[in-house]
Amino acid sequence: MHDLPSMSPLRITIDQHTGTVAVDGIPGVQVDTVEAVLTIEGQPVRDWLVELGLPKHWETLEAMATPRGYSKRWVRFVVGDESRTAFPGKWRQVPRLWRYHRSGYLLTLAHLPFVLGVCHTVWRGNPEEAPGAEGACVLSEARLYDSDLADAAWRGIQQGIFIGVSPILERRGMDPQGGGAILEIGLTDQPVCPGARILKTWEG
Fold first, then answer.
1. Which of 30, 121, 153, 191 is 20 to 30 A from residue 164's alpha carbon, by CA?
2. Within-domain flag for 30
3. Rounded Cα–Cα distance for residues 154 and 28 (Å)
4. Is residue 168 part of a domain?
């Protein structure tokens, strides 16, 4: 199915000298980042590419991301809640102030541009739907592609490598810290917001 995007239009670049993060194509956007670290709470940052047997070759990963269509695999997750984040200062996100569409967001492999699937539903959650979530939360259900890379990501979810997501939020004008508009959502092994976790997976 050639109408399914395999690559995100967003390109995140990091200046290795200054640590400044830019989103190509969106000039002047403010991007909040965690400090670059080699360990997280004393544990080495995992190399999930190696764990999943994936190559570290860009062109090969790009080819693996090419979808043959949609799979029957679904993932439900918390996009974000008000738990303390890993950002400097441990400030909280403010999901009640987020701007978002009800569907259509790309689910990427971490914040690499490789697309794994599409978020078919996005909504304001409640405590019954997301036990343990702190304060307001936003939930989503994504359908994964039928692709070699999405297959690997599914294995990573089932093996407990990928435990949550990290949304890219665009803040402009008077948007407060923790607010903004959702641009994209990335599957990750280390959610910046600890409440942004996978709730359920199923096939059907």
1. 30
2. yes
3. 35
4. yes
